[in-house]
């Protein structure tokens, strides 16, 4: 099959939107120049100083993206050159490389640009994870240009993490995934198969028996017990707990109970003090022969507190 390439080259900018990172069309002035930092999102112009410009075209039906930096004028010029190059190739004209690097992109420069963009669009923990992974990758990979990276380089990176850095299997997988995200963002994919990825075994979390939890909670004061039960019953993570609002200025645990007398279940929202009285009565048969299960808190969560 002949190598057919689309003659049209689009210029986009990868920016942070309400739905995450997106490649958005740039805004052009009447004379065809790119308006700096302006992109089109949902049909409207928005200003986004973050992110880099990308060329986008198709080869044999496959979409190809190429990062061309943060300068709008240079990005526009690169788009015109790429479009001319594709037209020439489609007409059987040999195209010479733009420079002595055969048009290849510097790996070090691409890493710097990617981390700068990550710093603008991600949380500090994410930036730290990408920084560590890409630092290790550039340490293990001898290649100077992105286009020279091969499957063998990625396999060596896995071994480097395992043997030289003595990373745990799950840590190897995480860092490998971060490097693959970096390569994908730069239009490089298809280097490895699913069997080339590092492997790890998901460890089962330790399960605490109800008696063990009772001992822990018995050693807590009222405030400590409230927080331990809140984390235990909601399963919330740190970022979620940060935005939890108080309902009536106290968190109300929601308990499930089973009545051994009438064999029915029921639920109650109780304060810590009410729960400690252990005066629970079945609403169906008024029996006190009930057993508590574990359930979730009744809590309101919001992205921002007032």
Number of domains: 3
* Widest beta sheet: strand line-up: 4-3-2-1-5-6
Can you tell me the overall shape? elongated
Average residue pLDDT: 82
Count the beta strands: 12
- Mind summarizing the main beta sheet? 6 strands, antiparallel
β-strand percent reads 15-25%
Q: Spans with pLDDT under 50 lasting ≥5 residues?
A: 299-306
Amino-to-carboxy terminus distance: 62 Å
Order of helices and strands: EEEEEEHHHHHHHHEEEHEEE
Give the fraction of residues assigned to helices: 25-40%
Radius of gyration, rounded? 29 Å
Count the helices. How many?
A: 9
Structural class label: alpha+beta
Overview of the molecule:
The chain is an alpha+beta fold and 306 residues long. It has 3 domains: 10-90, Double Stranded RNA Binding Domain (2-Layer Sandwich); 107-196, DNA polymerase, domain 1 (Orthogonal Bundle); 210-301, no CATH class. It has helices at 72-90, 107-121, 124-140, 151-164, 169-185, 210-218, 222-234, 238-241, 272-276, and strands at 10-17, 20-28, 34-41, 44-47, 53-59, 62-67, 244-245, 252-259, 265-269, 290-292, 297-298, 300-301. A hairpin with a 2-residue loop joins strand 3 and strand 4.
Question: How would you describe this structure in keywords?
Answer:
306 residues, alpha+beta, Double Stranded RNA Binding Domain, DNA polymerase, domain 1, 3 domains, six-stranded antiparallel sheet, four-stranded antiparallel sheet, 9 helices, disordered C terminus
Task: Describe how the helices and strands are arranged.
Blueprint: E1 10-17, E2 20-28, E3 34-41, E4 44-47, E5 53-59, E6 62-67, H1 72-90, H2 107-121, H3 124-140, H4 151-164, H5 169-185, H6 210-218, H7 222-234, H8 238-241, E7 244-245, E8 252-259, E9 265-269, H9 272-276, E10 290-292, E11 297-298, E12 300-301
Helix pairs in contact: 2-3, 3-5, 4-5
């Amino acid at each position: 099959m002949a190598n057919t390439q689309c003659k049209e080259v689009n210029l986009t900018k990868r920016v942070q939107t309400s739905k995450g990172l997106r490649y958005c069309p740039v805004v052009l002035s009447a004379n065809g120049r790119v308006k700096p930092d302006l992109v089109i999102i949902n049909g409207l112009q928005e200003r986004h100083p973050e992110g880099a410009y990308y060329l986008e075209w198709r080869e044999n039906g496959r979409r190809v993206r190429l990062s061309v930096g943060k300068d709008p004028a240079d990005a526009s010029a690169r788009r015109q050159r790429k479009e001319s190059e594709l037209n020439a190739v489609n007409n059987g004209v040999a195209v010479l490389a733009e420079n002595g690097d055969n048009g290849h992109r510097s790996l070090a420069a691409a890493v710097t640009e990617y981390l700068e963009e990550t710093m603008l669009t991600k949380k500090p923990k994410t930036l730290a994870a990408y920084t560590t992974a890409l630092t290790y990758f550039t340490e293990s990979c001898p290649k100077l240009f992105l286009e020279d990276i091969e499957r063998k380089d990625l396999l060596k990176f896995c071994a480097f993490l395992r043997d030289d850095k003595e990373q745990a299997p799950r840590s190897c997988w995480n860092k490998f995934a971060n490097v693959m995200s970096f390569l994908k963002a730069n239009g490089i994919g298809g280097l490895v198969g699913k069997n080339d990825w590092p492997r790890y075994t998901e460890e089962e979390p330790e399960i605490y028996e109800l008696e063990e939890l009772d001992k822990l909670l018995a050693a807590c004061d009222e405030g400590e017990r409230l927080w331990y039960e809140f984390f235990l019953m909601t399963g919330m993570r740190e970022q979620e707990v940060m935005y939890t609002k108080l309902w009536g200025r106290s968190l109300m645990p929601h308990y499930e109970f089973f009545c051994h007398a009438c064999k029915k279940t029921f639920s109650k929202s109780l304060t810590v003090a009410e729960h400690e009285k252990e005066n629970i009565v079945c609403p169906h048969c008024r029996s006190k022969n009930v057993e508590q299960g574990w359930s979730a808190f009744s809590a309101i969560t919001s992205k921002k507190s007032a």
